[in-house]
Every structure is written in structure tokens, then in C-alpha cells.
Amino acid sequence: MKKTTFAPFAKPLYVMLKPVGAMCNLACEYCYYLEKLNLYKNSKKYIMSDELLEKFTEEYINSQTMSQVLFTWHGGETLMRPISFYKRALELQMIYANGRTIDNCIQTNGTLLNDEWCEFFHDNNWLVGISIDGPQDFHDEYRRDKQGKPSFVKVMQGINLLKKHDVQWNAMAVVNDYNADYPLEFYHFFKELNCHYIQFSPIVERICEHEDGRHLAAPDETEAHQMTRYCVTPEQWGTFLCALFDEWVKEDVGYYYIQIFDSTLANWVGQQPGVCTMSKTCGHAGVMEFNGDVYSCDHFVFPEYKLGNIYSNTLVEMMYSERQQNFGRLKYDSLPTQCKECKYLFACNGGCPKNRILTTTTGEPGLNYLCKGYYKFFDHVAPYMDFMKNELMNERPPANIMQAVRDHSINLN
């Protein structure tokens, strides 16, 4: 296949892959992605072809200016493609690597894991993200299969197989109306699993019926006012984070890594946070569907945010287009005055644009639904973040915060 040379850019190009689109063996009630099949009703298959896999691999690698390239496989349920598909992906990565180091991470619900999958992940150093919502009663409340059967037991079997084969894995847990009231039970569960890297993701969705059958609203659909029943409330989110932090800061700093705490500290010291929702701009992470369609973001797979198709446009053309650049800049530019004057703007940067569905007290649009919760959290952790920032500035480990808490030189509120 003919090689293509792209002009270099200052930052890495990042596009997630959806090898099965929105297909999944589960039917989690809060899933924002299952209904995306309605965007592709004319498709006979919802799987990525080998031809597209090769085209993407070559173009994605050649578009990078960094020595390391990360492939992120997402779903739907990624393991609905056979291992042979991912083995071919590795072969193509080797063919087009051209001296670069290639890493792979994959997100799965864990129910289809077996010894063969885990051996593959271990032998090829893949990082596996497991979607699990805490203890059994929390998890099974919304994460069930198409027959309504719970999935927790199968997920735990998968996690035990990952451990058996010494596979690197982390957890992604959705915080919803049901489990948000039990932050310590949530956290202790992951500690008992010896899971040291945890991402807590709050669920925020509104209902808006579409002619094609989709029922969840895009961020700019202002006529959607009804929140889904499983949404976490702003008050729940703030209380959840504060309780979680109080537990973590006493004995787990440097041992257990909770994404939002790490990202908050990064913003406190003026570094790039590890999560896009807390960055000043967005638009750095696109997503490619099974048929080559590229969208601005995984949470913006709506017709109005489609950038094009890889068969018609290059990844560079789409991801560095003026349209995508505007999408990224709009995260800050569209903030209401209340946010721009907030003392914690540097910490949250307005949060994910997808959740900016409220109006301020003066009637300006663009306020994040979770604003009150985030504000409560930042106000609560401010003295601890100040302490850890000072430690970092003096080349000391931020984990010293734990001794300070024990010595009562800094007190939990």
C-alpha cells in the first residue's frame, strides 16, 4: 500500500476506534451508545472491515509526530470481534510502525473474557479497561444483558482471569442515581479487588426523541428538559467526591490512583490534566466508527458533529480542520460569565461540554449540570491540593499529605 507523508503538528493526533460500532452483548440501561445503531440502519454489518483497519492503521501511525502511538479500542463491546481481528491489527501495526513504539488499550465489559483473550492481552502488553459499577447490587442495577439478566458474576470471572494471567487492567465505574449515595462501599470494593487505577464517570443524560429512533439528547438540543431517571444529581456528585477524597487522602495517595483526583492536582499545579473533561480546550480526541465515519468526540456521535469519512478525508484534514479546532476552542469561549469569574475555573474549565445544559442565575446558557457538585468538591479539597502543590514545587512527594493529615497539621472538614 502506498505510504503517505503528513505535515507535522505540535500535538499528537488521537482517534479512538469502534471495531463493532454500538453492538454489544449487554443492554445497560444508561448506555448512551447502544442507540447509535440508529444512525446506521442501512448497514448490513456493523463491523470494521480488514481493509478499513489497514487504512486507518497506516494513516494513523503516519500522522503522528511522537515516537509513541496509542491505539484505543472501544465499543459497543470490543470483544465481539474475534482475537484474529486484533492479531491482524498487531501485524499491521508492526508493518507501519516505522520505528515507533505502539501501545494498545481496550475497553470491555469483561463478560466475554476467557483464558485465550487474557493470554493474548498479557503476551502483547495490552492495557484492559473493565466497565464495572462497584459491588454486585450496584453493578446489576443497570448493567444487564438483553434478557434482563445481571452481569456482575461474569464480569468478576473476567477480572479473575485477568489477574490469573497477570494482565494490566483498570476500572471505569459509572456513578448514577443508585450507587452515588454509597461512595465508601464503592471505593472499598475496588481496593478489595486490588484495582489501583480507577475512573469514576458521572452519568448525565436527557431525553429527546428523534425520528430515527434515538431518545437521548445532543448537547445543543435545548428542547430536551427531562433528565433520565438514572442521572446522578449535582448534590450527589459533590457529596460522593468529597467522601471518596476524605478516605483516599488518609492512606491511599500514591497507592491508588483516582483519575479525577490526579487531574485536579494537575490543574492545581498548572499541568495538563489526564482527562479531557477538565482541560481548557477539547477536540483532541476524535472517534472513528466501524465504517470510517469520524466524529469530534466519543460523546458527540451525533450527525451534526460528523467530521467526514476516512475514505473521503484524511485523519489530519478532519482532526485539524477549522471545524474541529472551533469545536475545541468553543469549550472555553462558550463559558458563561459565571464560569469565567469563578475562582475554580482553572480546576474544572467548565467540565465536559456535553453536560453544559443549564442556564445561570442571569439566564446565560452553558452552565454545567454538575457545577454545584464540582464546586463543593473543589472547595472541600482546596487546602489539601494547596499542600500537595507545595510539596511538588519543593520536589517532595505529594503523598506527604497523608502524614500531615495524621499529624492534624491539616484537618479533614
What does this 3D model show about the protein?
- By secondary structure, the protein is an alpha/beta fold.
- Helix content is 36%, strand content 13%.
- The protein contains 14 helices and twelve strands.
- The protein has helices spanning 50-62, 83-96, 115-123, 136-142, 152-164, 183-192, 234-251, 259-268, 315-319, 322-333, 337-340, 345-348, 371-393, 401-406, and strands at residues 14-17, 68-73, 101-108, 127-131, 169-175, 197-202, 257-258, 285-288, 293-295, 306-309, 358-359, 365-367.
- The strands form three sheets. Strands 2-3-4-5-6-7 form a six-stranded parallel β-sheet. A four-stranded mixed β-sheet has the order 1-8-9-10. The protein has a two-stranded antiparallel ribbon with strand order 11-12.
- Strand 11 and strand 12 (365-367) form a beta hairpin.
- Helix 1 runs parallel beside helix 2 (83-96) and helix 7 (234-251) runs parallel beside helix 13 (371-393).
- The termini are far apart.
- The model is unreliable at 1-10 (pLDDT under 50).
How far is it from the N-terminal to the C-terminal residue, by CA? 62 Å
Low-confidence stretches: 1-10
Please outline the major beta sheet. Answer: 6 strands, parallel
Number of contiguous helices:
14
Helix content: 25-40%
Order of helices and strands: EHEHEHEHHEHEHEHEEEHHHHEEHH
* Shape label: globular
The neighbouring-strand order within the major sheet is 2-3-4-5-6-7
Counting DSSP E segments of at least 2 residues, the number of strands comes to 12
Strand content: 5-15%
